[in-house]
Amino acid sequence: MSRYHDRAIEMIQHQITRVCKSACPDADFCEGLIQANVGQGHISTEESVELMQALVDAVSARRRERQQQSAAQRLAAYERQYGRAS
């Protein structure tokens, strides 16, 4: 079971890392991985809670980052179009 446990944790953490780089961060796939591994007994419920919290934090942080990037791009486009007011 240790091998399955380690592999499950590694796979889930890898997916959380991918969410941190995604252009459209979404937690659904990773949530499914966590639930499936709990169902199979590869990870404990406590570990699933920790992993879910890490996932939620990663998705929220990435969405905030994308919103800030979008706002900066819109501002830059506005300034290019209308010139910076002095």
What can you see in these coordinates?
The chain is mainly alpha-helical and 86 residues long. It has one domain (2-82). Helix content is 80%, strand content 0%. It has three helices and no strands. It has helices at residues 2-19, 28-40, 45-82. Helix 1 (2-19) runs antiparallel to helix 2, helix 1 runs parallel beside helix 3 and helix 2 (28-40) runs antiparallel to helix 3. The longest helix is centred in the C-terminal third of the chain and has 38 residues, at 45-82. It is rod-shaped, with a radius of gyration of 19 Å. It starts with a helix and ends with a helix. The model has no long low-confidence stretch (mean pLDDT 92).
Order of helices and strands: HHH
Terminal CA distance reads 66 Å
Largest sheet: none
Taking pLDDT < 50 over at least 5 consecutive residues as the criterion, the unreliable ranges are none
Structural class: mainly alpha
Describe the structure concisely for a colleague:
The chain is an all-alpha fold and 86 residues long. The protein has three helices and no strands.
